[in-house]
Write a structure and sequence with these properties.
mainly beta, two-stranded antiparallel ribbon, 1 helix
Length: 72
């Protein structure tokens, strides 16, 4: 995806999550956090799980997604 692509603000992207980067498979402006169900703008996406291919809104959600901090 590049800045010249036209993307609807209401469309969710399909993303392939890699070890150090992600690749947009189908254009969109956001993904949905697997834990909180919050929308995450692609420009703000920092946390994801490669094995389960899940995005996370923040570090707390990522810790829960990886199975840490549950019940604390």
């Amino acid at each position: 995806m590049n800045p010249f692509d036209s993307v609807s603000a209401a469309k969710e992207a399909v993303v392939d999550y890699g070890d150090a980067e992600f690749h947009v498979v189908s254009p969109g402006s956001y993904v949905t956090c697997a834990i909180t169900a919050k929308r995450i703008n692609l420009t703000d996406l920092r946390y994801w799980n490669v094995d389960s291919q899940e995005p996370y809104a923040d570090a707390d959600a990522a810790m829960k997604g990886f199975g840490y901090g549950v019940g604390l």
